[in-house]
Amino acid sequence: MKVTTTISETREQIREWKKEGLTIGLVPTMGYLHEGHASLIEKCRQENDRVVVSVFVNPTQFGPNEDLEDYPRDFGRDSALCESIGADLIFHPEPEEMYDHACAFVNIHTLSENLCGKTRPIHFKGVCTVVAKLFNIVQPDNAYFGQKDAQQLAIIKKMVKDLNFDIRIVGCPIVREADGLAKSSRNTYLNEEERKAALCLHRAVLAGQEAISAGCESAQVLRAMEQVIEAEPLAKIDYISIVDALTMQPVEKVDRDVLTAMAVYIGKTRLIDNFSYEVGI
Ligand code: AMP
Fold this sequence. Notes:
Blueprint: E1 2-4, H1 7-19, E2 24-29, H2 35-47, E3 50-55, H3 75-85, E4 89-91, H4 95-98, H5 116-119, H6 123-138, E5 142-146, H7 150-162, E6 168-172, H8 192-197, H9 199-213, H10 218-230, E7 235-244, E8 258-266, E9 269-277
Helix pairs in contact: 6-7, 9-10
């Protein structure tokens, strides 16, 4: 497995593989890899001749008071995990390599207005910009994203369509701990008491799924979920919302494919979870 830190050496390797007619899969990550990331890399390994993993804590997707400095990093462990799954290349640039006095950014409206976009107003501009840059550098045939970040996945699919990237976007299911907590690099911020409290997100997902399956309207589904979170003293709701799965706009009735998503603070740590519901017409 090769590790590159510059755009030029990455391009050189990609050019060689393309010359040989090999297919390339890309898994963009911010590192501190866990089984959720591993599931994306494994799927990428199954479907491509060459597997590229990017490990880059992207500064442009963090707001001024967010956790950019504290975000956990362990490149030694990350590269060992990637190697064990059979990745061929890790692209691990410094911020200066990716943003050399950059003036061009990729913005996406409408889909980024609600859910995480509301409390993190510059987040998806940063995400779209870095993903577009990675797509241009790696030129993958396939790129893998987790449904854990469901709004991000919907936004990337729309960006690829609107900007005509010739790349297939593959969504992969949420990987959870045995007790239901969605795996996240940010789970390491939780102390023992907060770790237990964090289970309320999964309990709220289950309550929401039950209410939707019973035919409830959005307001009732949301109320059922809010009650679960409100019963947990360490938890504070950032948002819980039901949106159209494609446009990310709120819906009153569950009469189409929807995404139900939430962000909840457990102490100072902001965690997200979600589930999709397909009407299946
Ligand atoms: P991150 O390193 O948090 O930016 O995540 C990199 C990719 O891994 C994104 O596409 C995430 O959606 C995905 N991912 C993170 N956690 C999980 C999880 N628990 N299950 C599935 N995919 C995940």
